[in-house]
Amino acid sequence: MDFLIRQALPRDLEEAGRITVEAFVGDGYTKPTSGYVDLLRDAGRRSHEAELLVAVDTADERVLGCVTFAVGGTEWADIATPREGEIRMLATAAASRGRGVGEALVRATVARSRELGLAGMAFSTRPEMTAAHRVYERIGFVRTPARDWAPYPGMDLMVYTMTF
Length: 164
What we know:
seven-stranded mixed sheet; 5 helices; 7 strands; 32% helix
């Protein structure tokens, strides 16, 4: 592996925000005019209010991807209970896809959940994010339709969970 996963540093935040917007808007999951784009871009806020993990190239420290991690019951957790960890806004730079960056980021959040003594993880994903679903299932997450939800009409979210 030619990258490492670590907590985001101040120097990583602008690029992490850019990559998150690139992934969500560029892949067609979020409209460029959506107010959500500002939240996607604001990696500094995510880093301050939750945990922001980044994958960085070991040669030049370039940010290759990022994920927001939160404990259930906190501001950044939508679906997790207080005994679960949750991921939000998993994003890999288009040029870095196929290198295992996304999978390594998700595995790091599983490790973080275990480190915190949590009972498992739960998070939401869009039905059309099929590449991400394959990663989640490979790691051991299972679809949990009973917890599916919609933050607003027309935005149906699927839930994946893992119990430790």
